[in-house]
C-alpha cells in the first residue's frame, strides 16, 4: 500500500540523542543525532 509522504513523516518514531538517550525536540527527518545539552548549546 502506498502512503502519503506527510503520513510517513508523521508516523516516524521520536528521535533520541545518540549520546544520552534523551528525546530530541527537533524535526525527525533532520540529520543531527545529539541533543542541545550534549552539544553544549546555550539558549539565548
Automatic annotation (TrEMBL):
<protein>
    <submittedName>
        <fullName>Protein YhfH</fullName>
    </submittedName>
</protein>
<dbReference type="Pfam" id="PF14149">
    <property type="entry name" value="YhfH"/>
</dbReference>
<dbReference type="InterPro" id="IPR025432">
    <property type="entry name" value="YhfH-like"/>
</dbReference>
Amino acid at each position: 500500500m502506498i502512503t502519503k509522504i506527510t503520513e510517513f513523516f508523521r508516523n516516524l518514531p521520536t528521535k533520541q540523542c545518540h549520546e544520552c538517550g534523551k528525546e530530541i525536540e527537533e524535526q525527525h527527518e533532520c540529520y543531527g543525532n545529539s541533543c542541545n545539552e550534549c552539544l553544549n548549546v546555550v539558549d539565548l
